[in-house]
Amino acid sequence: MPRVKPFYAVKCNNTEPVVKTIAALGAGFDCCNISDIEQILKLGVETDRIIYGHPVKDPDDIKSASEFGINLMVFDNEHELVKIKSINPTTSLVLRILPFERGSGDVIDEKYGCLADRCEDLLVKAKKMDLNVVGVSFQIGRSGFDVVSHLDTIIFCRRVFDLAKTIGFNFNFLDIGGGFPGYSTEGNPTFADGAKRINKTLDEYFPTEENVVVIAEPGTYYVQSAFTYVLRVIGKRVSNDVYDYYLNDGVHGAFSKTVTYDKKVPDFHLLEDKPLVPFHKSNVWGSTLNPDDRLAQNIQLPELDIGDWLYVPNMGAYTTVLATSFCGTPPSNIIWMASDSTTSQVGF
């Protein structure tokens, strides 16, 4: 998407080599808290490459971000405007709206985002408060790549731009959020196919001569396929021809989103093949005492032994950042691999 400037979603994976590499590539950053902002600024990233993308911010964090020179913040309600007005009334503001789902007109999220029929009232209030609203943002960020939702919401953003002009604003900023896949899967639209349709819609509704700055907030797209997770079998039990295996990580570690939120079975592979070993009905468990710490149920696996290693590819997005220390779960030991040219360019 040649018109779209990437602002990496730090919340997706904030490990130092990841953000350092993305910074070296010249991308911007979508930060959702003051910790994210501090981490990125320490890398020498300029403040104009940072958007404070959380619609509801702690007043202390607004103050700190303003002191750091962050001058682009998101809002979705009147109370947020009051906070910002009292702390940093000159900052540039972006109205976050609720996106639409598959052309139905139904919203797909309830926690953040201004409803379509509330945009006018909120913009009028911002104008009366003499605040500087410069554009619109939305966030689709679902597990699947919902291209139609992106297109429908971009079209609605055009309506918000035109509405804002009648109120006295001159919008020049559009943030189309994230939700882009990190790798291709059978039966789902590829990023390349979706990008073509998004580019066409942007050109039609936000022609280049309007000079609108367009950004996106990719997270999964950048890092999902960059990480492979390796686990060890630490326990085994056999009962009634069902094999239970216990691994050294689970839903309280890197598999929180995969299992609990996405309701998916991790894509387990054996690190070393066992071609002559029979397959059995198997359950795979995490290491904690939580009875719901189960990664897979009634799947077919070759018989494993304690000490065997498994791996799961495409584990870079919303994995290590969601891990807890519950029941003594240790943090993941991350091993980085990169070419000599890459490490020298990035400065590792």
TrEMBL record:
One of its GO terms (biological process) is putrescine biosynthetic process from arginine, via ornithine. Its EC number is 4.1.1.17. This is ornithine decarboxylase. Keywords: Lyase, Polyamine biosynthesis, Pyridoxal phosphate. The keyword Lyase applies. Catalyzes the first and rate-limiting step of polyamine biosynthesis that converts ornithine into putrescine, which is the precursor for the polyamines, spermidine and spermine. Polyamines are essential for cell proliferation and are implicated in cellular processes, ranging from DNA replication to apoptosis. It comes from the Eukaryota. Pfam families: Orn_Arg_deC_N. It comes from Lingula anatina. One of its GO terms (cellular component) is cytoplasm. Its cofactor is pyridoxal 5'-phosphate. Homodimer. Only the dimer is catalytically active, as the active sites are constructed of residues from both monomers. It is an enzyme of class 4 (lyase). Pathway: Amine and polyamine biosynthesis; putrescine biosynthesis via L-ornithine pathway; putrescine from L-ornithine: step 1/1. The keyword Lyase applies. GO terms for molecular function: ornithine decarboxylase activity. Residues 1-223 form the Orn/DAP/Arg decarboxylase 2 N-terminal domain. It catalyses: L-ornithine + H(+) = putrescine + CO2. Belongs to the Orn/Lys/Arg decarboxylase class-II family.
